[in-house]
Specification:
mainly alpha; flat; 263 residues; single chain
Length: 263
């Protein structure tokens, strides 16, 4: 299916707003699950947006900036995953792999801004020395506007202007290459979730992971909502147990101190 001019403009406006949010990290609407859903809504295929959002969010779950290391851009990954799946009739897993070049390109542009905007620091330091808050506000608004407009332009060019070339390129790919992208796209969510577990996983939480895996894999459900509800229940149990331990520990320490003082 083709993307109309109106849809391309709406995608650009969405990218402008989300670009501001990604730059400021304010509302976190730049996460792929939100970006994909909004993109699917604009393109008239909300179900595709939700499916792509779930897969892309898992792929980016463990990818967070660490110092100078920057992961691929989640905004372009979300937008282009839905756009490619929509225009080429591929499944979201295949589209994730095809969307990565756009995501990496946008991240290089952002890194360029990181370096270029350092030239504004001298002016910002001078404004800070003079307590000129208006100048600081203007500088921040200027740089944020540049980033936001860049997001809008890149998304419009990639999603609308280049859609025919992109569709022709995907259709000209041999079946083995398309299947390779599909396999890679299917692996990426598992890799992202594994990276997240590497950071967050604790030994005492392993039984809950095994329990959830068995439920999701071997018990037939029409959707994963029952597993999510059980996960919330287990999380509440763990939270209450930790809260009870935290409330008991100071009392025991206080009793021990009183006993030693009595001796």
């Amino acid at each position: 299916m083709e993307i109309t001019l109106v849809q391309g403009i709406l995608l650009a406006i969405m990218a402008l707003v989300i670009g501001i949010d990604y730059w400021l990290e304010a509302l976190f609407i730049f996460r792929p699950i939100i970006v994909c859903t909004l993109t699917g809504l604009i393109l008239g295929d909300l179900q595709l947006g939700l499916m792509a959002g779930g897969l892309t969010e898992l792929a980016f779950a463990g990818l967070t900036p660490a110092g100078g290391t920057q992961p691929p851009n989640p905004v372009l990954a979300g937008v282009m995953t839905v756009v490619i799946a929509h225009t080429t009739d591929n499944n979201p897993a295949t589209a994730i792999g095809l969307a990565l070049p756009f995501s990496i390109l946008m991240q290089y542009i952002i890194l360029f801004f990181y370096s270029t905007f350092s030239f504004f620091m001298k002016r910002a330091d001078d404004a800070a020395d003079k307590a000129d808050t208006n100048a600081l506000i203007r500088l921040n608004m200027l740089m944020t506007s540049i980033v936001a407009v860049t997001y809008a332009v890149v998304v419009f060019l990639c999603a609308f202007v280049a859609q025919d070339a992109m569709k022709s390129m995907v259709e000209s790919m041999p079946s083995w290459l398309t299947h390779g992208f599909e396999v890679a796209g299917g692996i990426l969510p598992a890799v992202g979730f594994g990276m997240l577990l590497k950071v967050m996983m604790k030994g005492e939480l392993t039984p809950y992971l095994i329990f959830g895996f068995v439920m999701a894999s071997f018990i037939p459900f029409s959707n994963l909502l029952p597993v999510a509800v059980v996960g919330v229940a287990l999380a509440i149990i763990v939270f209450n147990n930790e809260k009870r331990k935290a409330a008991v520990s100071p009392i025991n320490m206080s009793n021990g101190d009183d006993f030693s003082n009595g001796i």
